[in-house]
Structure formats: C-alpha cells, structure tokens
Amino acid sequence: AAALALRKVPQCNSSWTNDYIRQYHNVNINVAVQTDHGLFVPVIRDADKKGLSIIGEEVKQLAKKAKENSLKPQDYEGGTFTVSNLGGPFGVKQFCAIINPPQSGILAVGSAERRVIPGSGAEEFKFASFMSATLSCDHRVIDGAIGAEWLKAFKGYIENPESMLL
Fold this sequence. Notes:
Elements: H1 2-8, E1 14-17, E2 20-23, E3 29-31, E4 33-35, E5 38-40, E6 43-44, H2 52-67, H3 73-76, E7 81-85, H4 87-90, E8 105-118, E9 125-137, H5 144-159
Parallel strand pairs: 3-7, 7-8
Antiparallel strand pairs: 1-2, 3-6, 4-5, 8-9
Helix pairs in contact: 1-5
C-alpha cells in the first residue's frame, strides 16, 4: 500500500539535496528490521511493481540476512521511503518514526486492534479492525497537504485491498 501510494503521489517519493528536490522514478521501500546487532533497513526494490506475496518473501529473506548480520550494501542502499512496523512484532499501538536521510518520509505502523462500531440498525453493532499509521515528512520536500494526500491514498489501499492487485 505504501509503494502504490508513492506511485500515486510521486512528490513523496523524493529527497532533498542541498540545491533541489530529487524525485525518484523507482519506488524502493526500506523496511526496518530489529536484530541483536541493532536496527537495519533492507530495501525492497521496485516495490510498486510487486505483489504482496513477493514483497513478503523478500522481506522475510532480507530480515533473515539482517539477523545473521550478512546484509551487503546492495541489500540496504538506494531506498526512497521507509516503513517501520512496531505494531505487529512489539504490540506498540502508535509511534512516530524518524526519517532516514536523504529520504523525505517514513511511515510508522502501529498494531491493529478490533473495536466495536455501530451496525446498520439502531441496536446493532459489529467489529472492525483499526490500525495507527503516522507519516513523518521532511517539510522541505513534503508539505502537510502533500503528506495528507499520500496518507489518503495509503488509507484507500489499506481499506480496499483488492485495489492493490497488480
């Protein structure tokens, strides 16, 4: 969803270089992986062109390499945006992530929780899943309006997963 939102709002797939804003053509997503050796951020290249199963398998392989301390520079260099998930592995509900320069954005994903919401009738209720997602932006590149546009696109993909089918 993050990669497709970057394709939809390409201004967020950019970085600040002291003289200009560089907008990337490739969507390369770094994924934060905690290990006994510290935090690593291996990269999924061209993530917007890959299905969820391929991305999941690549993340699994890169996480294994990170935990074995065997990542090579090509495994973590060249990312254009980072996703950090403390929800699934650590149960953190919400957090703010710090941008990895020269990138201009990072998404902090919190844990999903089931909540009771109103149903269609006056006395009806149903369960729904809610997840926190916090976008940190370098405002030299991504202002609040563009960041909100990206979050809207991300939310649309998360709430309608069938729209992510390639």
